[in-house]
Design a protein that fits this description.
Distance between the termini: 57 Å
CATH class: Alpha Beta
Number of helices: 5
Strand content: 15-25%
Strand order of the largest sheet: 4-3-2-1-5
CATH superfamily: DsrEFH-like
Order of helices and strands: HEHEHEHEHE
Length: 154
């Protein structure tokens, strides 16, 4: 009877040994030296837009502190395109501020959404200078993920 308990105790120790002194994966610094982040905005909500900017800024600052790089693209479509419209953007100044802190951040503006808005509104829509027109926002997100970008929807 005593031998069985000893064997069971040794077996339990063998099973748990690999987990002793192991850090949670979320707190370990990555061994990668280059990262890619795709952020998605599809609502006309300044708080969501600002959250995407904060996510981009925080990732950039932390990876820079670690001596690593990060490529970041914020893709806007549907009602999120208002973020990148010259006439309706509630966050134009925040875009400029983000660009100053993170000069390499890219802003993808969905052309499908832009064309739909132009048709409905009967006027040409001008985008903020920081925006780059992409054929379709959802396709751009797929392409970025295929290139190894990690997708986040704030």
């Amino acid at each position: 009877m005593d031998r069985r308990w000893i064997v069971r105790g040794m077996g339990a120790a063998m099973v748990t040994l690999p987990f002793v002194n192991r850090k949670a994966a979320a707190y370990e610094k990555s061994n990668e030296k280059s990262h890619r982040l795709a952020l998605h905005v599809d609502v006309n909500d300044p708080d969501v837009m600002k959250l995407a900017f904060n996510n981009a800024r925080n990732a950039h600052e932390l990876y820079t502190e670690w001596g690593e790089t990060v490529a970041i693209e914020i893709v806007a479509y549907s009602q999120g395109l208002h973020m990148l419209r010259e006439d309706t953007s509630p966050v134009k100044e925040e875009i400029k501020a983000l660009r100053q802190k993170v000069p390499t951040v890219a802003f993808g503006a969905c052309n499908n959404t832009k064309q739909g808005m132009e048709k409905r509104e009967g006027k040409t829509i001008t985008l903020v200078p920081e925006a780059t027109l992409v054929p379709a926002g959802i396709v751009r997100l797929v392409e970025l993920q295929e290139l190894g970008y990690k997708y986040v929807k704030p």
